[in-house]
Write a structure and sequence with these properties.
heterodimer; A: 109 residues; mainly beta; Immunoglobulin-like; six-stranded mixed β-sheet; four-stranded antiparallel β-sheet; 10 strands; B: 116 residues; 0% helix
Chain lengths: 109, 116
């Protein structure tokens, strides 16, 4: 039931764009996205609910395709501060929460 | 500072022992969530309490239990500890019963548990 994220790791130059995907085998009610920097607690980025698309931050947005049970996180014009590990979290229609496998994002100058 | 306080920050204990981790949510937050993060299992949701009642349960072992008290602080009790329980345990809180666009989830800094 753990959602699968892809890619596992990505390295970007400042200003480049990235897409991180999260795919579940279960019907989903909501998808959350988090960023965690090394040695720190996760930081909540945004939530997407069934039936809607949510923008959480200026250059970070996400989509949620309920039929495909997939969500994508879009990072545009990446900044050094975007580096970290990104996790999706899913709540399925059985009210179970799972975190994805994580995607390591490194932004270099 | 997220406003979520966890104690202790670090804990080393022997196998078979029992420990209690404590979490104080942000002022006004009614929901408390517990998570476990380990190298081999990644980030896992354990359990959620909302205003004193269990709201959702994840991959929490029978050896683990939690509760939320009337003052809304929460404790996670881990018993019969095994080496594999070594992990970082996070607590988080939200104002309502679920995170939403206007209801951010805030994480504490975590409690590092090492079982030797």
């Amino acid at each position: 039931q753990q959602p699968v994220q892809s890619p596992q790791a990505v390295i970007l130059r400042e200003g480049e764009d990235a897409v991180i995907n999260c795919s579940s085998s279960k019907a989903l009610y909501s998808v959350h996205w988090y960023r965690q920097k090394h040695g720190e607690a996760p930081v909540f980025l945004m939530i997407l609910l069934k039936g809607g698309e949510q923008k959480g931050h200026e250059k970070i947005s996400a989509s949620f395709n309920e039929k495909k049970q997939q969500s994508s996180l879009y990072l545009t014009a990446s900044q050094l501060s975007y580096s970290g590990t990104y996790f999706c979290g899913t709540r399925d229609t059985g009210n179970q929460f799972y975190f994805g496998t994580g995607t390591s994002l490194t932004v270099i100058p | 500072d997220s406003g979520v306080t966890q104690t202790p920050k670090h804990l080393i204990t022997a196998t078979g022992q029992r420990v209690t981790l404590r979490c104080s949510p942000r002022s006004g937050d009614l929901s408390v969530y517990w998570y476990q993060q380990s190298l081999d299992q990644g980030l896992q949701f354990l359990i959620q309490y909302y205003n004193g009642e269990e709201r959702a349960k994840g991959n929490i072992l029978e050896r683990f239990s939690a509760q939320q008290f009337p003052d809304l602080h929460s404790e996670l009790n881990l018993s019969s500890l095994e080496l594999g329980d070594s992990a970082l345990y996070f607590c988080a809180s939200t104002r309502g019963s679920l995170p939403s666009s206007g209801n951010t989830i805030y994480f504490g800094e975590g409690s590092w548990l090492t079982v030797v």
